[in-house]
Amino acid sequence: MSKYIEENAEKDSLYETHISKLDSTISVKDSIIQLKNKMHIDLSNTVSKLLNDHEALFRENKALRKEFKRQKRKGKLVTVGLMILSATAANYLLK
């Protein structure tokens, strides 16, 4: 009878060790899942920020191109105006 009790105690000890290892494994897996979820959230936030920044840069680039075209047109008008003024002054001086 005592041998039976010893074997059951040993079996119980082995089961407890096995359960402890399984609990440890589950704990590690839970930690990994939490870390992956955090990384996914961080990555999503980063992608959203990058897309917002890209959109802002696109709008700024578009505005700067528009401003550049205006300045280019203004420069051409000034050049044409100066040419007309020079031609008029030269014509006036020649007469």
Strand and helix map with partners:
Layout: H1 2-94
What do you see in this structure?
The structure is a single chain. With 95 residues, the chain is mainly α. Helix content is 98%, strand content 0%. The chain is built from 1 helix and no strands. The protein has one helix at residues 2-94. The radius of gyration is 41 Å and the shape is rod-shaped. The chain starts with a helix and ends with a helix.
Summarize the structure.
The chain has 95 residues and is mainly alpha-helical.
How confident is the prediction overall: mean pLDDT? 95
> What general outline do the C-alpha atoms trace?
rod-shaped
- What's the end-to-end separation, in Å? 139 Å
The fraction of residues assigned to DSSP E strands is under 5%
**For the report, how would you describe the main beta sheet?**
none
Low-confidence stretches: none
H-E string: H
Query: Helical residue percent?
Result: over 70%
The computed structural class is: mainly alpha
Q: What oligomeric state do these chains adopt? A: single chain
Radius of gyration: 41 Å
Tally of DSSP β-strands: 0
Number of H- or I-type helical stretches: 1
